[in-house]
């Protein structure tokens, strides 16, 4: 069974996020150099106040674009917890379930197999249940048709897992863009102050605030993007491993089911031939 993982778009998002992160780092270094230049003309009180900044102070100094970054960070955390829960072993392929399913198939105990699958909410159980339900509704179907059902059901669950983890890739690509937007806004404020031509007193502090806002927003975007992309890479590899294990288990179950279906077919033909022979013997007696 083939499961189609559409990770190409996620890879492009990852490459975009990394490229934007590199640009942000370059801008950050440039702003650090500018801040060092302006620090020589700043009052010492401003420098002491900057040393005492905490997380909340940095959030406030980052400007209004820190709020979208905060919302994206909450969404990324929620998506990470969802992916952590949905990609665990018991949610995809419980260790003991394949052996129980195989025993029921060899004994042709479809009712017990349905009960086992209904008690387990894993992807493997849901896929096997769809196969059994199809066989009950279509008793004359062949193994190729059953494989198509298994492919469709498995691909649907694989797409769900892939779409979940792609949220992390999207957040990792969007966060640096918001950071760069904050950088542009901060630099606009700084150059507007410079364009007024007054570089004394309060104007110096306002210029420094514009530069600090640009740096803080850029750093905030990168702080969000880097863990998001790292989580995306981790969960993508984890999903690929889970789906590969699921593929092997479902393929094994289909092979066992195919053997049982062939055996039933041969037994049915033998029973029909025996019944026909008995009928012919009865006709000869008459």
List the helices and strands and how they pair.
Blueprint: H1 8-39, H2 44-51, H3 55-61, H4 66-86, H5 89-92, H6 97-106, H7 110-119, H8 123-137, H9 143-195, H10 202-285
Helix pairs in contact: 1-9, 1-10, 4-9, 4-10, 6-7, 6-10, 7-8, 8-9, 8-10, 9-10
Overview of this protein structure:
The protein is mainly α. It has one domain (8-281). It is built from 10 helices and no strands. The chain has helices spanning 8-39, 44-51, 55-61, 66-86, 89-92, 97-106, 110-119, 123-137, 143-195, 202-285. It is rod-shaped, with a radius of gyration of 32 Å. The two termini are 56 Å apart. Residues 1-51 and 271-281 have low confidence and may be disordered.
| Helix and strand composition category | mainly alpha
Number of helices: 10
Q: What is the CA-based Rg, rounded?
A: 32 Å
Strand-residue fraction? under 5%
- Estimate nothing, just give the exact number of structural domains: 1
User: Which percent bin holds the helix content?
Assistant: over 70%
Concise synopsis of the structure shown:
By secondary structure, the chain is mainly alpha-helical. 85% of the residues lie in helices and 0% in strands.
